[in-house]
Amino acid sequence: MPLQRIRIRPVQTPVTFYEQPLSERLRFFLRLECLFSQTRHCLRSESGQDSHTCLGNLLEILHIIGRVDIKTEVVKELERIIATLEPLAQTPGVNHDTLDSLLVTLGGLKSHLRNMDTPIAQELRDNEFFKLLLQRSGIPGGLCDFDLPPYRHWLQRHAETRIADLRHWYGCLDTLRLSVDLILKLIRESAIPENCIAEGGIYQQSLDSASPFQLIRVTLPEDSPYFVEISGGRHRFTVRLLQASISERALQATEDIPFQLSCCAL
């Protein structure tokens, strides 16, 4: 019987990512990404408590996008990325089908946002139920039953009804969500991780001011006893690794610790 050749895939070690945005625009995008992810997770559950958490996330999203002209910020970032990617069509070895498809997707999102007659999520802001919740959501404990009988009534409705409502409201943010997800994906994939050493638990590096660095990303094994703090700006940054503790003040590591570093610029 002939021997069979078996391909053994290398086991990938689970990792944890720590990120530091280098612009206020990217800071907004990362916060939105976090809230979108939490909302998606809660949408999978039928419990009233998860519906409450899901709605709370939607209200937080509305608060965030109400602070800035988020539509303009997203359109500007899409335009910047398109302008960066279009010249790659002249680069030898580029997969033109992939590039063309990506540019079409980016252009479609940009056009959709530009052609919107109203601000993002205006439908939610005009909804009387949402208006009531928004007014109370800035108060700690402001969504309690005795303050909001209509909300209490909604939470007691059948799970299918609640989830259908939540999915509709979440869908009002689809173009924003898809744009933010794609922008962050492309920025993260713009850098190849490099192996670095934090000597005595600290690492410092200067950045080329001519390159549009937007995100610093540090990768550690998931089971590492350390967590990462990143500080700095567009010209220089510092990575510190600290001993994790939930009962005492975190102390900086004293030994040399390997990690992976991605300086993302697109």
Q: Given this structure, which CATH class of the largest domain is correct?
A: Mainly Alpha
Counting structural domains, the number is: 2
- The number of helical runs is 9
Q: What's the count of strands?
A: 7
Low-confidence stretches: 1-6
Helix content: 40-55%
Query: Main sheet, how many strands, which sense, barrel?
Result: 4 strands, antiparallel
Element-level helix/strand string: EHHHHHHHHHEEEEEE
CATH superfamily of the largest domain: YacF-like
Our Rg estimate from Cα atoms comes to 23 Å
The CATH architecture of the largest domain can be named as Orthogonal Bundle
Q: How does the helix and strand content classify structurally?
A: alpha+beta
Mean pLDDT: 89
Oligomerization state = single chain
- Choose one word for the global shape: globular
Pfam families: ZapD (PF07072)
Organism: hydrothermal vent metagenome
Keywords: Cell cycle, Cell division, Cytoplasm, Septation
Protein name: Cell division protein ZapD
SSE topology:
Elements: E1 15-21, H1 24-43, H2 48-65, H3 70-85, H4 96-114, H5 122-126, H6 128-137, H7 149-155, H8 159-171, H9 174-188, E2 194-198, E3 202-206, E4 213-221, E5 226-232, E6 236-243, E7 257-265
Antiparallel strand pairs: 1-4, 2-7, 3-6, 4-7, 5-6
Helix pairs in contact: 1-2, 1-9, 2-6, 2-8, 3-4, 3-9, 4-9
Describe what this molecule looks like in 3D:
The chain is of the alpha+beta class and 266 residues long. The protein folds into two domains: 23-185, Orthogonal Bundle (YacF-like), CATH 1.10.3900.10; 191-265, YacF-like domains (YacF-like). Helix content is 46%, strand content 19%. Strand 5 (226-232) and strand 6 (236-243) form a beta hairpin. The model is unreliable at 1-6 (pLDDT under 50).
